[in-house]
Design brief:
Helices cover about 50% and strands about 15% of the residues. With about 400 residues, it is an alpha+beta fold. The chain has three domains: about 110 residues, Orthogonal Bundle (Butyryl-Coa Dehydrogenase, subunit A, domain 1), CATH 1.10.540.10; about 110 residues, Butyryl-CoA Dehydrogenase, subunit A, domain 2 (Beta Barrel), CATH 2.40.110; about 160 residues, Butyryl-CoA Dehydrogenase, subunit A, domain 3 (Up-down Bundle). The strands form two sheets. Strands 1, 2, 3, 4, 5, 6 and 7 form a seven-stranded mixed β-sheet that branches. The longest helix has about 35 residues. Pfam families: Acyl-CoA_dh_1, Acyl-CoA_dh_N. This is Acyl-CoA dehydrogenase.
């Protein structure tokens, strides 16, 4: 692995950081999360029109830029620094790769250009106790099922040659505003139980979407109810969905790890700036040895997490999402995500502590970074289970004993 960034990668980071600095400051961020959409449509248009960010990792034949997951992860490191609230994660990281991997040629040609251009957004609706179950981040998803009724997930039936969905999905990222929903549904009954993916228009008859109050307001979530909704099967009926979801989980975890590293790096920068200015006993707080030691520990954690995240992003680019990907492959993305979330929680926690009384206030941004760490761990973790899964996938505990 070559850890040096290419000129193109450096340019992506620099341009994106400049744009977010101008368009996504603290005031703009709070206004965006309080809006009905949960994000700033003008910022999303700028990210799409000026940088092609939604299509960064999509092939050029579908209107994308033609880069890899590595470039998308580096871009998300910058969006993580500013906690930018936009449909990038839901559209470009979680949904578009599945459309590319499983969709028919006609479906790809119809849907991907709109996603790449940013004129259409998408959301992945996966029923069950946690999204990490389907993405195989915290365990093998071989036994995952998309539900057992309205409260337990989504069922699908076929009537007059048409697929119809009914059920409910909680915690759908950007599900309240997405133009397209990619829904995992259960079919086949008990004897031939299967999980398939279906395309549903966000404004289709029978779709009820309710934005939920989330711990991390910068990641809008929705409850999606499907009441006998017409749907289109993604790909072929014999497609093997679970391996594709597992492969997506590893690449998505790598992107999320880079995003968390960006957030941790930024909160560390802000804390260092503050302790250099804040004076106590006639000298800057940052001059005290105890404060230096605490921030040094945060710095080491952030740099270690960055190395792990970059390696995971590089490895994900070498093994893109595909229907034939093996569920049992070592979960490098999950391991990097665990380290990055731990680093972000440490950085945000120390930031709140070292900012003193102001760090605990609603008006200060330190609490937003801490909520990002806690919210991501609830959605994609927890950390100890991510590490357990990585150890299991690597065969460290084969036969109940530590492998050496």
């Amino acid at each position: 692995m070559d850890t040096r960034l290419t000129a193109e990668q450096d340019e992506i980071r620099r341009t994106l950081r400049e744009l977010l600095h101008k368009r996504c400051g603290p005031a703009e961020l709070r206004a965006a999360v309080d809006s009905p959409a949960g994000h700033d449509p003008l910022l999303w248009s700028a990210l799409a029109d000026q940088l092609g960010l939604p299509g960064l990792a999509l092939p050029e034949r579908y209107g994308g830029v033609g880069c890899s997951v590595t470039e998308l992860a580096l871009a998300c490191e910058e969006t993580g620094r500013s906690l930018a609230s936009c449909p990038l994660l839901a559209t470009a990281v979680l949904t578009a790769p599945l459309l590319l991997a499983l969709g028919t040629p006609a479906q790809r040609a119809e849907l991907l250009p709109g996603l790449a251009a940013g004129t259409r957004t998408a959301a992945l609706a996966v029923p069950g106790p946690a999204l990490t179950t389907a993405l195989a981040l915290t365990g093998d998803n071989g036994g995952f099922a998309a539900g057992g009724g309205r409260a337990g997930g989504v069922q699908v039936r076929r009537a007059d040659g048409e697929w119809r969905l009914y059920g409910q999905v909680e915690q759908v990222l950007d599900g309240h505003s997405a133009d397209l929903l990619l829904v995992a549904a259960h079919t086949g009954g008990f004897a031939r139980s299967r999980t398939l993916l279906f395309l549903v228009a966000g404004d289709a008859p029978g779709v009820v979407r309710i934005r939920q109050t989330a711990l991390d307001a910068t990641r809008p979530q929705a409850r999606v109810q499907l009441r006998d909704v017409p749907a289109e099967l993604l790909g072929e009926e014999d497609a093997d969905v679970l391996p594709a979801l597992a492969a997506l989980g590893d690449s998505a975890a790598a992107v999320l790890a880079c995003e968390a590293v960006g957030a941790a790096d930024r909160v560390l920068e802000r804390t260092v700036e503050y302790v250099r200015q804040r004076e106590q006993f006639g000298r800057p707080v940052g001059s005290f040895q105890a404060v230096k030691h605490r921030l040094a520990d945060v710095y080491v954690g952030v740099q270690a997490a960055r190395s792990a995240a970059y390696h995971a992003a590089w490895a994900a680019a070498c093994a893109p999402v595909s229907p034939s990907a093996a569920c049992g492959s070592p979960a490098g993305g999950g391991l990097a995500l665990a380290q990055a979330l731990e680093a972000l929680r440490l950085a945000a926690g120390e930031g709140i502590q070292l900012h003193g009384g102001i760090g605990f206030t609603w008006e200060h941004d330190a609490q937003l970074y801490f909520k990002r760490a806690a919210g991501d761990e609830l959605l994609f973790g927890p950390v100890h289970r991510l590490r357990d899964r990585a150890a299991e996938a690597a065969g460290l505990f084969a036969g109940g004993e530590v492998a050496v």
